[in-house]
From TrEMBL:
GO CC, one annotated term: plasma membrane
Gene that this polypeptide is encoded by: nuoH
Summary of subunit composition and partner proteins: NDH-1 is composed of 14 different subunits. Subunits NuoA, H, J, K, L, M, N constitute the membrane sector of the complex.
Functional summary from the UniProt entry: NDH-1 shuttles electrons from NADH, via FMN and iron-sulfur (Fe-S) centers, to quinones in the respiratory chain. The immediate electron acceptor for the enzyme in this species is believed to be ubiquinone. Couples the redox reaction to proton translocation (for every two electrons transferred, four hydrogen ions are translocated across the cytoplasmic membrane), and thus conserves the redox energy in a proton gradient. This subunit may bind ubiquinone.
Primary localization: membrane
Top-tier EC class: translocase
Naturally occurring in which organism (per UniProt): Solitalea longa
Protein name: NADH-quinone oxidoreductase subunit H
Protein location: Cell membrane; Membrane
Keywords of this entry: Cell membrane, Membrane, NAD, Quinone, Translocase, Transmembrane, Transmembrane helix, Ubiquinone
NCBIfam families for this protein: PRK06076.1-2
Entry EC no(s): 7.1.1.-
Top-level taxonomy: Bacteria, Pseudomonadati, Bacteroidota, Sphingobacteriia, Sphingobacteriales
Keyword Cytoplasm in record: no
GO terms under biological process: aerobic respiration
Amino acid sequence: MESALIIEKFLLITIVLVVSLVVAMYMTLVERRFAAFFQDRLGPNRAGPFGILQPLADGVKLFTKEEILPENANKLLFIMGPSLAMFTATISSAVIPWGRDLVFGDKVISLQVADINVGLLYIFGVVSLGVYGMMVGGWASNNKYSLLGTIRAASQSISYEIAMGMAIIALLMVTGTLSMRGIVDGQGSTLYGLKGTEGLGWNVFYQPVAFLIYLICMFAECNRTPFDLPECESELVAGYHTEHSSMKLGFYLFAEYINMFVSSAVISALFFGGYNFPGQEALANAGVASYWITLIGVGAFFCKIAFFLFFFVWVRWTIPRFRYDQLMRLGWNMLVPLAIANIGITGVVMYLTGHIN
């Protein structure tokens, strides 16, 4: 039984890793095509039908480009930076429940790599380590633009992780658990106890302020426009990865898109019910096999992820970049006080409604 469990987990890890890489790869094409649409252009359309092979062409280009190592760079750390960024991006999805357990007779297959009772803390811990990839790679390249991008990345990450953590505290007061599966399963109930709303008890309806704060901080943590100051090309050439070339640059770019995918999955799980969907109880009562309900839930989860991935792209090509002082003022002067106020209001409401003594 233990060997079968190891094989099952190994296959699940492989599937999650492959899906993450494929999504990251084709998000580059999706972003370029949407950018072209917004700007009344065609976008990449030469490599394969409708440009569908463009990500493969870009990958071959990155793998075959010349490796450049700056003369005064720290070689070991220069290589470790993008490797660390890619590593932290790929392991952050280990505690995300992608669906209910698949049941085939006596066989139960879990669609979660690791169900730990502090899964949310694990995600925050791994995400906070991701900034070290930018810091190490940027500092080791011995380039002033990279160093400035590194400093911006570190200060931005510290600032917005505080507001993000406080937003999650209010959510935890409502859910009462740090387990990702526990949080998702808790959203399978009714909305405000209304009949016919099974599967719609999503946390976004109970904690809209926490969701808004988390959404803004998610853009800052992923270094996406309008918070892409660590790699602001109009000021810092390419920021922390200015001196990186070939697949070292590819690792930084891939890590950003994998972080987008994982962040979209996390916000969907925390606030939008994850694999819960309206009508799931009706399907179960109608005698639909549990594995079909599970597969529909997985599809619903990925639809929610796709929406937030589109939202990332839409915001990038719609909203202009903030100045750095505006970025820090938003984090410290607005989001942190708002998150603290939300915690206080949540506590008062829970006390008045009898959820806490």
